[in-house]
Amino acid sequence: MSVSLLHPIPGDETGVFSVSELNSRIRSILEGSLPFVWVKGEISNFKIPASGHQYFTLKDSQSQVRAVFFRAQNRRLKFVPEDGLQVVCQGRVSVYEPRGEYQLIVEVMEPAGLGALQLAFEQLKKRLEAEGLFSTSRKRPLPVCPRRIAIVTSPTGAAVRDMLKMLQRSPYPLAVTLLPVRVQGRDAAGEISAALGAVDALCERFGWDLVIVGRGGGSMEDLWPFNEETVARSLASCRVPTVSAVGHEIDFCISDLVADLRAPTPTAAAEWVVARLESLERELERSREQVTERMRSLLERYGHRLGLLEKGLKDPRRRLEDLRLMLDDRMDRLQMAWHRDLERRRTFHGHLTGRLGQCHPARQIEPLRQRVAQLGKELTQRFLSQMSLLRLRLDRAASQLDMLSPLAVLIRGYAIAYSVTDGRIIRGSSQVEVGDPVRVRLGQGALECRVTAKEDDSGGA
Predict the structure, then answer these.
(1) Would the pTM count as exceeding 0.85?
(2) CB–CB of 192/215 below 8 Å?
(3) CB–CB of 189/121 below 8 Å?
(4) Which fold has domain 19-113?
(5) Burial level of 443, CB count in 10 A (0-12/13-18/19+)?
């Protein structure tokens, strides 16, 4: 590592740096002497703000350094950095001038000791297991007789040819639908997830019993689409029972844990379907033989009982005569019982008719009618008496009202004067002026007048 001496700024007679100038010079020296470095350490204080940049501290047993992993570079990570993880970072050293702090700007990050893909696999497996996506209680029961099968795989790979060849051995005709997707590369996970979404959306229309998702063997990078979270969640949400058939028997993917059944190879998945149908056929044949044997045994037993019954069967004509005699006897007894019941009911009817005559309403209505007439007369008399009393009280009150009425005073020759403008009663000459209009109320009628002269109480004009 080369070290440069800090010299005063040319032209500055004092030879003194400002803080900003000092930080700028230090930044240029560090970035010039350490363009790219590899640093190994443990992540701590890991944060991701809304910008998507990753800020953390790399530390060992004695020192630490701040680091930033910008969003444009960290989006290519296969695993999720977290506190306590040992990593190896490649980056450049720079100085954040506003605070005078140097930091490592990370360009590449790899887990120390464990591969990035393996770490990403373990992280996603741990997270999905915590959510319950691997739980057996969540998984759907597999169909007893899968007859309509959807296959999500590459249309050109050896896996689809092996599966179709195996399915041709089925003892029953099968309807197979191929949903072609890419099974490796950057866009493979999205296509597999979209195909599973199509299976979920169209399952009622096509009536699929089972969906097989898989491909042949390959490296971990080739099989990685089946370790993507989007494929795992599409498998978990699919309404059709799913089988994951990825790689060889030694390969293990996240899709194997989420699917309702894991097949070690694509061929093994097709073989499971055929074995399921062959087992069903054998079970049906065994059941058919058992039913046939059971029916044969029942027929023999009932035939033997029928023979015994036939031997003990009497002449039906004798039985018919006995039944005819019994019927005649029953008819005679029934007719006698009917006549007795009719006579009893006739006697009871006569008794009820006599009691009803005694309780006839007409006998009770006449006294009540007389009582109503008497009460009506008494009510009329009380009403007339009350009216006479109220009329006397009314006349007395009217006389008293007439005595107190101001109209009676007016009839004796008095009058009331009103102001025409505001309707007030004029009680003194000071309330009007000469020429004002005045309304005079008389005992009978009124006069519209105008003041031509006025005088006060002393008689002055």
Answers:
(1) no
(2) no
(3) no
(4) OB fold (Dihydrolipoamide Acetyltransferase, E2P) (2.40.50)
(5) middle
